[in-house]
Amino acid sequence: MGKPYTRPRKGSIKKPLRIAVLISGSGSGLLALLNHQQSTQCTHITKLIISDNVNAGGLRFGEDFDIPAEAIPLPDSINKGQQRKMHENIIHDVLLNSDIELVVLSGYMRILTSNFVGKWKGRLINIHPSLLPKYPGAHAHRDALADGAKITGCTVHLVDEGVDTGKILSQQEVPILEGDTIEKLQERVKKVEHQLYPKVLDIYCSEDY
Ligand code: GRF
């Protein structure tokens, strides 16, 4: 669907791929990635953190890890479509100004327009808390529980013009246990996400997928 994926260059330990991480909330996935990048000889490095939410807890990791962290909220505008476009254009410019080569969505809660996706397709990656194509959208855990599912999981995928429909790079299952609530399930899935996402990024940044 839409434009083809264009891969980023291969990163190396000498010249790691420059990553921006986009968040909206607590940033536990961001923290796992930053710890991973510090503890291993990595082919990627986080050079920028952006949040659409000025109150996102994850922004504080910028200070902790000495990485520029910027809140870019939706700008004021008369119409929603224009507002979305303006917001994405600001983000795009900030990414270019920091020479970003790969955009990592980690709990970023906005749906990106095909205009933005088209500029980054193949260099825009997301993690979703379900086994896609099951339970796309913002309420994956609620939907899995309501469905009576026994297994869910997480998916790392390239972003395309649809919602959680891009090329799947890797998935991992997580069992749903009796008595699970959205919160309990979310915590259990996040633990798996924190292992999976850095591993997939290692491969995506340094090998042919
Ligand atoms: C993760 O479960 C991610 O898959 C989903 O939002 C959550 C983000 O959590 N899209 P955090 O902000 O990294 O703690």
Task: Walk me through the structure.
The protein is an alpha/beta fold. Strands 3-2-1-4-5-6-7 form a 7-stranded mixed sheet. It has helices spanning 28-39, 60-65, 80-97, 114-120, 140-146, 182-206, and strands at residues 17-23, 44-51, 69-71, 102-105, 124-128, 151-158, 168-175. It has one domain: Rossmann fold (3-Layer(aba) Sandwich), CATH 3.40.50.170. The chain contains 6 helices and 7 strands. Helix 1 (28-39) runs parallel beside helix 6 (182-206). The longest helix has 25 residues, at 182-206. The structure holds 5-O-phosphono-beta-D-ribofuranosylamine (GRF). Residues 23, 25-30, 58, 106-107, 127-129, 190, 193 line the site of 5-O-phosphono-beta-D-ribofuranosylamine. 5-O-phosphono-beta-D-ribofuranosylamine is lined by residues 23, 25-30, 58, 106-107, 127-129, 190, 193.
List the helices and strands and how they pair.
Blueprint: E1 17-23, H1 28-39, E2 44-51, H2 60-65, E3 69-71, H3 80-97, E4 102-105, H4 114-120, E5 124-128, H5 140-146, E6 151-158, E7 168-175, H6 182-206
Parallel strand pairs: 1-2, 1-4, 2-3, 4-5
Antiparallel strand pairs: 5-6, 6-7
Helix pairs in contact: 1-6
The chain binds 5-O-phosphono-beta-D-ribofuranosylamine.
Residues 23, 25-30, 58, 106-107, 127-129, 190, 193 line the site of 5-O-phosphono-beta-D-ribofuranosylamine.
